[in-house]
Design goal:
Order of helices and strands: EHEHHEHEHEHEHHEHEH
Strand content: 15-25%
Strand order of the largest sheet: 2-1-3-4
Shape: globular
Number of helices: 10
Helix content: 40-55%
Amino acid sequence: MELNKRLGCLHAHYSNIDYIETALTPYEIEVIHFVDPGLMNRVTTDENFQESDAQHKVKEQLDWIAQCNVDAILITCTNYIAILQEDQLSFAVPIIKIDEPYFEHICKIQQPQTIFFTNPATVEGTVARLQHYAKVHQRSIDFEIVVINNTFELIMQGHKEEYHQAVFKALDQFVKEEKKMFSVAQLSMVEAARQVEYKTARTIINPLNALIASIVNQLELEKKTK
């Protein structure tokens, strides 16, 4: 019997685990989660914590995951991705970045679009990576950024339902007032985005759908048999 594929996931917060687990439940794959909220806390609050220190920590984390007999590593934190220096990694395990399938999707859109965030600290790195992706793939993307303020701290404090309600309310209001294409850039926003889609019948692109399709394709996953 062929053994299941194994995916190692590096998260900056525990809230991302359920999204990945639920989305991959139909497939023959074992998912192993590694969570470290401390790094992002140091990056955003400790003035003495240098970029080189963050790069060393990410490399250390990925080296450890790669040694756990995984077929691929998924990074769900966009700040981790921005810090990552792939040319300094010493392993051959493929790395899947949560935002690249999402970038591919939104770069195909030929009309103005709005990209929503709740975590201001992820905006600069994500936008820089998006612009780089568009340039490399010769895409032109017309977008604006909206940060839903005073919400991300809710999920960091464990107030998941309050967070979802705040994101839902903000997205619902924007969808009512604007006719642009919308997307949410963070995994933590997926649930609220889907609820607004259901209520309004408007499409809100999220990073999870494209990501799962990419994982299934790259790892050649099979559906579970009943």
